[in-house]
Structures are given as C-alpha cells and as structure tokens.
Amino acid sequence: MNRLLRSLVAMLAVFTPLAAFADYTWNFPEPATPLALDTLNVHNKFMLITIVIFVVVLGIMLYSMVRHRKSVGHQASDFTGPKNRKQLLWTLLPFAILLYIDFILMGIPAAHSIFMMEDTKTNAQMVLKITGSQWKWQYEFMDGDAQGIKFVSNLKTPDDQLYKGAPKGEHYLLEVDNELVLPTNKKIRVLLTATDVIHNWWVPQFGVARDAIPGFLRETWLEIDKPGIYRGQCKELCGRGHGYMPVVVRAVPEEEFKTWVVAKKDEQQATAASADKVWTKDELMAKGGETYNKVCAVCHQPNGQGLPPAFPALAGSKVVNAAVVDGEGHLIKDHHLDRVMNGKAGTAMQAFKNTLSDAEIASVVTYERNSFGNAMGDIIQPSQVKALR
Amino acid sequence: MSSGSIAAHDHGHDHAHHGPTGLARWLFTTNHKDIGTMYLMFSMIMFLIGGSLILSVRAELFQPGIQIVQPELFNQLIGLHALVMIFAALMPAATGFANWMLPLMIGAPDMALPRLNNWGFWLLPPAGTILLMPLVLYFFGIGTGGADAGWTLYPPLSAQSGWGIDFAILALHLMGISSVMGSINVVVTILNMRAPGMTMMKLPMFAWGWLMTAFLLIATIPVLAGAITMLLTDRHFDTHFFNAAGGGDPILFQHLFWFFGHPEVYILLLPIWGFIPHILETFARKPMYGYKAQVWSLVCIAALSVIVWAHHFFTAGMPVQALLYFMYSTMSISVPLAVLFFCWIATIWRGSMTFETPMLFALGFIILFGIGGLTGLVLADVAADAQYHHSYFVVAHFHYTLFAGGIMGVMAGVYYWLPKMTGHMFNEKLGKLHFWLTVFSFNLTFMPQFFVGLAGMPRRIPDYALQFTEFNMISTIGAFALGLSQLIFVYNVVTTWRGKGEKATDGVWEGSKGLEWQLSSPPPHHSWDPQPVVK
Amino acid sequence: MSQHVHQSPVRSRQIAVVLALVAVAFYVGTFFFWVPPQ
Q1: Contact B348 A17 (CB under 8 A)
Q2: Could you tell me if B297 and B337 are in contact, meaning their C-beta atoms sit under 8 angstroms apart?
Q3: What CATH class has B33-518?
C-alpha cells in the first residue's frame, strides 16, 4: 500500500507544476477577427475532446495497473482477442466512436473553417500587399484612398536592450518604427510575397499566418473586429534576424484611418521631395548613421567590422574604398553603390533599392565611405540615386 | 506466436573465439551482435552530444535578451540538435536493436548480408563527424559554422547559407545510404532467414515493426537524397530547382522533403511500436492481445504515412482540395494508431503485472506518447494550424512523440534487453530513479511549451517577448534536470556492460517469451547455428 | 556460417538487388518532379 501510494504521488508530481501557475496564459490570446474566433472555438472544442479521451484511457490504464498486479495476487488471464460476437462488437465500439469524432464531430467544422479561411475575395473591400525581406516587413496599399502608400517596418528595440542587458521596454522585440495602420470592420484581402527567402507573417490575435515566398504571391484575409494594437512575428526561419522582424498593426475606425492615410501620403511626398534637394555632408552623415544602425549594423556591425566571411567588414573594404560610378555616370557593377542598391545574388545582401528611399541609400553609402576608418571624402546625393534606379 | 521448441540444441560456438581482437575486431566484424553493440554505443554518444547542443540553446532561452549564444550560433545549434537526434541517435539505436535481436528472435545465425551490415555501420562515425565539423571549426574562428537553416533545410535560406549546409548534405547522404543498406539487410533477413516453421504470422512483432520501417526507408530516403542533391546543385552548379528567379519553386523542396519527412517520423517509431508489446506481455505475464490487428495496424500506418506529407506546410498555400485531402488523410492515421493503443492496454488488462524498469518505461511511453499523438490530431485541423504551425505548440508536440515516444521507447528496449546482451542485471534502483526523474523533468520541460506556443511564441527564435519569460524559465530548468538525469542511465548501462550486477539467467524476466530468451545471457558469439525448428 | 540456413544465399542477394533498384528508382524519380520553366 505504501509503495502504491508513493507511486501515485510520484505520478501526480509529474503534473503538479501546472497547478502553481495561476495567472499564466493557457490559451490563445483574445481573438480580434472572425478567423481567430473560429480557431479559438475549434481549438477549445478539440482540446476538450482529446483531454476527455486521454483521461478516460489513462483511468483505464491506472485501474489496471493497480488491480491487475502480481503483488496483490491477481492471476493473469490469457485472452488474445474477442471470444464471441458480443465481445467483438464491444471491441469495435471505441473505433466507431473515434471515427465519429474524427470525421463528423471534428471533421465537419474543420472543413467549414477551411472554406472560411480560403475565401479571400468575397466582399473584400481593400487589398494590402505585404513583402517579407531579411529582416523587415514592407507594406503597400494597392487600392482605394490609401493606394500608393508603401513603407518599411523595422524592429525598433535598441541594441543595448537586445545585447547588453539594458532594462527591457514593455514591448521588447514587438515594437516597430512604422506601424501598419488598418481600418476596423473592413474585409482586407492580403497578398504576401518576399524578396529573398521564405518568411511567414503572423499575428496571433488575427488567427492568420501565411508564408511569404519569393517569386510567388500567397493570399489570406483579415477583418479586424475592434480597434487596438496587435503584435505578431515572423514565423519561418529566415536567417539570423528571424526573431527580430515583428509585426505591429494599429487597427483604427474608418475615420481615423482616412486621417492617417492623408498624413502618410504627405510624409511620403516629403521623403520623395528630399531626394531632389541638395544635401550637405553633415545631413548625409547624420541620416546615414541612423540608417546604418537601423538596417546595416545587424550584419556589418555598428563598428563596421562585419562578421567575416558571411558578413564582410566595411572598414578597409575594397568595395567601399573605390569609385561608385564610371566616366559616363553608370553604376560600376559590384562596387559600393551597386552593391547597396542591387544586392549580391546568393547571399543575404539584398537589393536595398526595393526597401530604402533615395535619401536613405545616398546617406548610408556616404556614411560608410567616411566612417570606420574609411576616408573616401566623397558624398552621394539622393538625386544621383534616384537617377540610377 | 513464435515461442518454439528447438530440434537441435545450440552448442554455442563460443569455446574459443577465433578471429581478430582489439581494433581490428571492431573494424572488420560481420557479427550481428558486435555490429549491434557498435550502433548502440554510437547512438548513446550522439544522444549526449545532441543533448548538449540543445542545453546551450535552453540556457540562452532562460531569459529574454541575448546572453551567451549569438543568433548565428543559435541557428546552428537548433538545426544540428535535430539532425543529430534523428539521424545519429534514434535511427542508429533502432538499427542496433534490429541487428542484435532480429536474428536471435527469428532463429537465424546472423543477418542475411553481414558485410553490408559492417559497411552500414562504419558510414556513421564519419558522417557524424562531417555533420558537426563546421560547428567545431566555427568555435575556432574558421568558417561560417554548421548548417543553420533548421534540420528541414528549406531553400532559399539554405541555398544562401554557408558551407555548413554542404557538410550537412554530405552527412545526410552518407547516413541515408547507411539506412538503406541496413533496411535492405533487414528485409532480406526477415524474408529469407526465418527458422523453419516460423511463418510470417508467427513473426515477433518487433520484426513486423522493422519490416515496415525498412520498406519506408528504402522508398523515402532516396527522395530526401534527390531533394538535397538538387539543393546542392542549386547552391554550386547554377541550377534553379528551387529558385523562383530561375523558374523554380521553393515549395517543391518542401514537398520532396516532407514526402520523406513524414514517413521518417514513423520510421523513428515503428521499431518501438514493434517491441513495446514484447515488454508488455513479459511483465503482464499474459500473451499480447490482437497480434493480427497490430500487424495490420503497422502495415496501415506505414502505408498512410506516405500520403499525408503536406500537413507540415499548410501555411505555404495550396488549393482547398489539397488542404481538405491532407487534413482528412492525416486524421485517418489516428484509427490504426488507436488499434495499437487498444491492443497494448488489452495486453496488460487482467494480467499479473510487475513494474521493473523496462515496464515502467513501456507504460510511461504509452501515456506520454499518447499526449503527443492526441496533440497531433489537433494539429491536423488546417485552419487552426495557422496558429500552431511553427510555434512552440508544434515543438512540444513532436518532443512528446519523439522523446517520450522515441527516446523513452529506446530506453525501455535497452533496459529490457541489456541483461540478455551483457549477461548481467542492471541496477534496478537506479533504473527506477532514472525513470521517475526523466518523466518528471521531461514534463517540466515540454508541457510549458504547449502553452507558450498557444500564447504566440514562434519557434527557432533566439530571444522572445517578455510575456513568454516564465514558461521559458521553467522549460530551461526542466531541460537541465532532464539532461543530468540521463547520466544515471549512462552510468547504469556502462557499469552493467562492464560486468557489474548479478548474472542474468537465460530467460532474465519471469514472463519473457520468444526465441531470444532460450539462448544464454549473453548468447554465444555465433548462435542459432543450426537453426531451431519452430512449431 | 554453417549451411543449415533455411533458404539459399542466392535468394538473399536477389532480394537485395531488387530492393536496391527500388531505392535507385525512387532517387531518379525524384528529379522528375521538377517541372522545367515554360
């Protein structure tokens, strides 16, 4: 009896850790779309069914382990199968129940959920294109008032919090410089693609996750029930920055969305206009440093030493310390400006002309040529970059 | 079932073992017992290495922020952990048991193709070295490190990564060839070398399990080999199989990989489902229930496993018909699997059980693998899968199936057969202690991962948002406890092997059945020559 | 080993060759799943 008791206590100890966690989360976060709500309900129902199955079967096993043991004198039986028709039917009953659970109880709602999830076009009121890159998301509104708005969303958590143990902000790893703003209560058709490797755009409260595949378009849809800030992450391993490309969506009522659209368009025009003016070296160095630390330092390091051989050093680099355009003003292939604008095929160095503005490219190249011990002395104007696209 | 009488008593040709000794013995042996021993030792060493890799990962994940493992190294550690555990720990362990026990169980003097057997083993140590060498060199500042695109090696990321991927591809080719050679050997041995009177429906269940495993390996390892060959040529010879810019399709790789990958998880489990009934009937002192039903279940599971692969990448996007098909076919595997569970429980029901260490592990396997299997059913739901896919929920699911199922199953087999193989009983108290510590710390490690996945934590990330902290801390503590507990197992196995512990009888366990228990413990170096006759 | 084995070694090798050919067929067949660009 003592040994039995000890065994049972040991088994309970296996599951005891769970009881202590009163206010930890046990389930999906609060759903904010019809898809998320459906998934939550399906999940709860299915988990309940599986837990019941588990408890019943475990109960039968524990009963047997207690009663059918040699130490209490139980004699072993010798049956190896059902002996008569009645026993055979009792044997088949659990499997009939399982088939019902699988294909009717779980299977039919599961099919409905699939149809709902895949119907991206019916009553869609706007189209959003999301592009995944290493290691940021780019959003582009394809129609309606917001058409033409296109921007990149980078992780904004500072390096000292990530790597140097500085106290972490509330939204550590889940905060960005440019949030995606979307209207509530509108069905949004989402197109996904990528520029380099496969990424996956996921916002748990939306119940939506879909691969972003280079060279292909994938679709899903969103209809956000209520205003709020919703955070998610990339869900497909995409290199060293995989854990550092969050999604932040600010869902707002229609009116507020319209206001944001206007402000964002103004901001974009200002950026484009800045490409035409002439920048001073100081302005270029300042913006270049900011851009470098946000975009380039993750691989090439804040001190420009890189992590060779995967990420070359910029300090003393032959690519950096050379001319960028030839006598006729064309980009010299594989030299500094070409490398930044057009990337290097087969590596993690992407074509930044797709995600950085003229001013950002011009300034970051200027910054690199005049930092880390490099002293080329020259500057690049955003207008030059614009002309070379 | 196959407990037969013997027409000619096996004299044991062990009176003086002629043949090489020392290193030459092990390098050139064609003896199934020696080769089985080498597979098992290799497996145990690689298990400890694979465990160390992931303990570094769990140490980093103890708290938010990057403390000891930079993201580049992190990605190498997680991919190599999986490759080592799957290809260098679990598969060699199963092959080690096949080598040791199949000939003994079917009354054969050795495997059908003994030289092929030797080659099959000796491919593995070089393959393991090749796999891990880039990681080791990385610590000395040489090169870009080990494969860092996950064990699944998806392009375009894997096409872009450093030469750790090339080393992994070579290692996989070598390990794959080893598996196929071993599988051919198993099929031929089972079909051609059974003792007279042992019909297929008298085959020990372990042989059925391995027969199915072998067929799956022969069919699917070549597909993996094809896929990684294409990846290699994309990387170095300007092909565009998986490069969209060249007209290729990255998702083709996922189809090919998982066509191998899904059967692979059953490859890891079928041998264990084969010998668990042996352990249950031994310690319940009752013949196994539903032999025919279990055989047909194993066949069905193997057949179904080949047609469900796309459930690993529902979020990659595919037509609705495909989603529906793969969902329903995946769910249908639950039926033959339920048959197995039913038969296992019906075996112990109304038995006369004792709970020595092998039985503890077998019963623990049933319960904890059951949790893994049930969460797999939930994952099959396509719409909900958007939330589970590539989150820690999946990580927990496959550790319940592959650790509680695979590794604990292997441990059940080790404890069950160690006295037969070594001639000595292991330390039963330490065995029980190992069991309870393993079960407790395993659940402490992986149960929180279900919840942190539901809460929104993706997998394969070196750092995480603050709300995931508590569960990660618990999981890390559990992981270190789990790792340390395995040292008890290593100590027990090694000391027993070296002769500690009371001498084992032929039958070892009171309720043991099967031809292997009619031989001495340990059996003679050459056994079942001539073959017994089975009634 | 002694000659009391139930079936002949020739049959062993025959089965082994067939299985090896099956494996090779699956390997080669894998490449045929790549559809060349139009």
Answers
A1: no
A2: yes
A3: mainly alpha
